Amino acid sequence: MGLLDDTAVELGKKIKSGEVTVKEAVMACLDQIKKAESTIHAYVTIDREGALKKAEEVQKKIDEGKLTGPLAGVPVAIKDNMCIAGMRTTCSSKILDNFIPTYTAEAVKNLEEAGAVILGKTNMDEFAMGSTTETSAYGVTRNPWDPEHVPGGSSGGSCAAVAAGECFYALGSDTGGSIRQPSSFCGVTGIKPTYGTVSRYGLIAYGSSLDQIGPVGKDVTDCATILEVIASHDKKDSTSLDRTDCDFTSALVKDVKDMKIGIPRDYLGEGLDPEVKEAVLAAAKVLEEAGAVVEKFDLSLVDYAIPAYYTIAAAEASSNLERFDGVKYGYRAKEYEGLHNMYKKSRSEGFGPEVKRRIMLGSFVLSSGYYDAYYLKALRTKALIKQAFDKAFATYDVILGPAAPTTAPKLGESLGDPLKMYLGDIYTISCNLAGLPGMTVPCGIDSKGLPIGVQLLGDCFQEKKIIRAAYTYEQSRQEKIICPDMSEVLEKAVE
Amino acid sequence: MAKQYETVIGLEVHVELATKTKIFCGCSTAFGGAPNTHTCPVCTGMPGSLPVLNKQVVEYALAVGLATNCEINQYCKFDRKNYFYPDNPQNYQISQLYLPICHDGKVEIETTAGKKYVGIHEIHMEEDAGKLVHDEWEDCSLVDYNRSGVPLIEIVSEPDMRSAEEVIAYLDKLRLIIQYLGASDCKLQEGSMRADVNLSVREVGAEKFGTRTEMKNINSFKAIARAIEGERARQIELLEMGKPVIQETRRWDDNKEYSYAMRSKEDAQDYRYFPDPDLVPVIISDEWIDRVKAVQPELRTEKLERYKKEFDIPDYDAEILTSSKHMADIFEAATAICKKPKKVSNWLMVETLRLLKEKGQDPEDIMFSPEHLAELVELTEEGTINSSVAKEVFEKIFEEDVDPAVYVEEHGLKTVNDEGALRSTIEEIVAANPQSVADYKGGKQKAIGFLVGQTMKAMKGKADPASVNKILKEILDA
């Protein structure tokens, strides 16, 4: 593949030195997109002209010495729930089919200022609700490792695009594992930072108290570099934090000798695929051999995370999605009689079944008479889960475990049984409930040839610890885990 | 014997705060403006936009809460009230349900029945909605989001009022407190103060409250009084007929003097309130409260007492002057310049109120400067102009805020003090009106009035009436 084998940071260096032009990098991605998209379908919108135009502008600024950052000129893909002025933003929903924002999400703006070239918007589960990218109104995204399988979700498009070389890195968002789980399924690296680290301004909300934007990249160095660029204190987001410790690349150090790593026994029990378990424990072994103390412990309350999460996220979503009513923007039913019929038909036709399911669930748990029994109880559970993590982090620097119980399932396997699909989020959602940073790093390949990811969780504001552990693991590992060459995958898909 | 009924009334008063920008974005709150020009992604509910609280809203709410003797929730939160309507771009209103900023306050009111306290249940902050415009011609509805996100406080009273008079006294008290704090201009007609009336009736001596109804958005004190009388009569009539009062929201039609049911409790909406996850809790420190207290201006009651002591004006004048913060400010500023409180008060109490009434305006609409009023008082006191000229000049001040000295100069309105010129004019008048002179000499004292009038007319009003009288008498009695 040549150029496409480079990581974002490697490419950035080559662009800086003049070895590669921005246009060449963009063209490499566009060619790969042309080749792979008919099978993979990682994108909802591809902005070929915009990217080429931007490539020239950025090249000029690099040549003039105005852009010197590590990501200047590196092509990126953005999950379709982040607004970009002038670029269609759909959240993979029919209801926003024609929506073109007039403003740009703060995280994307930070990237643009660093000289990123945006290739387009990536596919996702509709409004980020789903774990497979199959709930998109614009068709499924397929896993670049094996197109018979899903890429995970909801940031499935972003993770698949990175794995397939259709971009050098991507932004995803993570409400209950939506960066970490598809990163695991696609064999890429992804970080969900501490809640409040990256501005949510311009991110179309799913569960506001849980949503965070984060990077998806080819390795730990890329992710740390991207996170350093997108993290910022934003006065437009009341929940944005004013952090002074966002020099994440300073943690790219191969040293875990002072670290204590805990593996929750609760994360290794029933439901975990034996191959995944083996790969995750092997990763822990690598860190142990690198000098970390690794222990198993009881985290507790793990079983309560899923009901608490689906109550809170659905409640917030039911309210967040009220604005999509056909009045101001987005889809409006063709024929209707009166206001209420217009609301009803526009929303019934505009939203897909998974979104409707969560709106109904959320409306129910907030309705009078049920609020205390469900929503308030879920909030209390959330607080208890945070306490359980506080206790764990009093002992351990990093918590290590799987990112998902299995590797990527086949297309169509999960959607039929939503409860089973929800249970697949068991290892990722506690992190959002507690506001913690978490990341997924590839750690193996199963017998079906699908990648496995190991998840590292840190205490709030301790991104550097998990980045250091992840970097140490990545650098100490024997063989690299790289997505097969697309030509082979595509040939196989044709057969 | 017919049953005796007691009316029980509680009010929900919405007050639009006088901030320059909206509650959750930087858009202007200015009135008017072409539709949807004072808007941004936040106040039009665009996807991905987020609210950020305007601190000034908290300051105003805090000031009103402290001035109404409320307890302050030093940890307060915003909640979402979910309901679908196109004037509400997000389809939820950001308000406060679970932890409102102020609670358990009271204000003292005075009516013909004496003084009493009205309890304040709570005060909460919230955002206003946009405005729907129904276009009959195109047969469609349009929406203007200029008002969307304008900050409001809602002051919820306890059901402590028993008559329309008490309700008016309570509303007037709130209006004065809030105007004095500068937190709002509180104009009922323009909607910057709006009241919903909760009313029930019960037999005198009954312990339990009757079933209440709510009447929405009544826009004048008079209409409120009429709505209360009308609703009280309607409920008593129902009870007398043995029919139940239904808990419902009613709309008062002030033209027909009758209220109509809008929606009953059965179809009341479930607003699915929950804490807004986009906003962080508001933490109000002791220091913040102290700071707001420290800058709290003198309120009406204190000002009234001070006027009675400090200025040599009748108590009645002090009451009227302080009934509008704006008028009181003009009074004090003008008095500080000319040192003639009684004269300044007279201009405000008589001419100003007369002109306001003529134009259907409130004291808040006074637009002249206190400097010009003070100057007018001085010109009159010095005898530079006489009182009838002064009245004419005052009307100009009232309407255009003219500088009286300049106006008098330009229009040649100075009193003529040249006695020789005056005497010769009077001699001409006397010569030209032999009949009146004869009448006067025949004992008709009134005839002199006619001669004075003729003289003033000839002098174009610029003569000093006292001098005219004096000279006339000298000539006639000679």
Give an overview in words.
With 495 residues, chain A is α/β, with parallel strands linked by helices. In chain A, α5 packs parallel to α6 (180-186) and α9 crosses α11 (353-366). Chain A is built from 16 helices and 11 strands. Chain A has one domain (2-299, 388-494): Alpha-Beta Complex (Amidase signature (AS) enzymes), CATH 3.90.1300.10. Chain A has an 11-stranded mixed β-sheet with strand order 1-3-2-4-6-5-10-11-9-7-8, with helices on both faces. With 478 residues, chain B is of the alpha+beta class. Chain B has 3 domains: 5-288, no CATH class; 298-410, no CATH class; 419-477, Arc Repressor Mutant, subunit A (Orthogonal Bundle), CATH 1.10.10.410. Chain B is built from 15 helices and 16 strands. Chain B has helices at residues 55-67, 164-181, 221-240, 286-294, 300-310, 315-322, 325-338, 341-359, 370-382, 387-400, 404-410, 419-432, 434-441, 447-458, 465-477; strands at 5-16, 71-72, 75-76, 79-82, 92-95, 102-111, 114-127, 131-135, 140-144, 151-157, 193-203, 213-218, 248-253, 258-264, 274-275, 282-283. In chain B, the strands form 4 sheets. A 9-stranded mixed β-sheet of chain B has the order 2-6-7-10-1-11-12-13-14. In chain B, α2 (164-181) packs antiparallel against α3 (221-240). The chains are: A alpha/beta (495), B alpha+beta (478). Chain A binds chain B through residues 81-83, 89, 91, 96, 99, 101-103, 105, 200-205, 207-209, 235-239, 315-316, 318-319, 322-325, 327-329, 339-340, 343, 363, 366-368, 371, 375, and chain B through 41, 44-53, 80, 82, 84, 86, 89-92, 143, 270, 272-274, 277-280.
